[in-house]
Amino acid sequence: MIDNLIHAALLLFLPPLLLGVINKTKSWFGGRNGPRALQPYYDIAKLLRKGFVLSDTTTWIFRFGPAVTLATVILAGFLIPFGRFDAPVAFTGDLILFAYLFGLARFFTTAAALDTGSAFEGMGAAREATFAVLSEPALFFAFLTLAKLSGSLTLTKMLHSSMEAFSPETAAPLVLIVLGLFVVLLAETCRIPVDDPNTHLELTMIHEVMVLDHGGPLLGIILYASSIKMFVLGAVVINVISPFNTGSTAIDWAVFVSQMLALAVVIGVLESIMARLRMRRVPYLLVSALLLCGSGFLLLVR
Amino acid sequence: MSSIVLVLIAIGVLAAGGIPACLQSSRSSAGQKISTALTIIGGGTGLYALVLSFGESTHATISEPWFLPFGRFAVAIDPLSVVFLALVFVVPVLGSIYGLGYWKQAEHPKNGQKLGFFYGLLAGSMGLVSIARDGVLFLIAWEIMALAAFFAATVEEENPEVRYAGWVYLIATHIGTLCLFAMFALWERGTGSFALEAAVSGTVPAAGAIFVLAVIGFGFKAGLMPLHVWLPGAHANAPSHVSAVMSGVMLKMGIYGILRMTSLLPVTAPWWGGTLLAVGAITGLAGIAFAIGQTDLKRLLAYSSIENIGVITMGIGLALLGRGAGRWEWILLGLGGALFHVWNHGLFKSLLFLNSGSIIHAVGTRNIEELGGLSKKLPTTAALFLIGAVAISALPPLNGFASEWLLYLGLFDTLGLDGKTALGGAAIAVPALAMIGALAVACFVKLFATVFLGASRSERIEHAHESGPAMLFPMIFLAGVCATIGFFPSLVLLPIENAVRVWAAPLSQQTTLGSLVSFNWVSTLGIVLVIMLGLIFTLLRFLAATRSNRAHGTWDCGYARPTNRMQYTGTSFVQSIVDLFFFILWPKRGKDTVRGVFPERAEFKTSVPDAVLDRLALPVFKLAERYAPNIRFFQQGQTHFYILYVFIITIVLLGIGAMGVNP
Amino acid sequence: MMAYLLILLPLAAAALALAIPSNRLRPWLLPPIAATHTVLLGIVLARPELAKVSEELVLDPMGKVVLASISVLFLLCSFYSVGYLKYRDERSNRVFVACLLAFLGLISLVAWSHHLGLMWVAIEGTTLVSAPLIYFKHSKLSIEATWKYLLVGSVGIALALLGTFFLAYSSMRNGMEATLALSDLLARGPSLSKRWLHASFILLLVGYGTKMGLAPMHTWKPDAYGEAPGVVGAILAGGVTSGAFLALTRAYQICVASGEGAFSSRLLMFMGLFSIAVAGLFMIGQKDFKRMLAYSSVEHMGILALGLGIGGPALFATVLHVVTNSMTKGALFLSAGNIHRSFASKNTDTVSGAIRRLPLSGSIFLAGFLAITGSPPFGPFISEFGILNGAFSSGHFLAAGLFLFFLLVVFIGMGRTVLKVTQGEVPENLAETSYKDDFLMAAPTLAFLLIALILGLYIPEPARQLLADAAALLENRL
Amino acid sequence: MIHVLNALLVIVLVMNLFTLGTSRILSVIRIVGTQGAVIGIIPLLMHEHLTIPSVVASAAAIILKSIVIPNIMVKALRDAEIKREIEPLIGFLPSILLGAAATAVSLLISNRMAMTEAHAATLIIATAIATVFIGFIILTTRVKALSQVLGYLMLENGIYIFSLLLVEAIPLVVEMGMLLDLFVSIFVISIITNHINQAFASMDTRNLSSLKE
Question: What is the extent of the structural domain holding B634?
Answer without folding.
Answer: 611-660
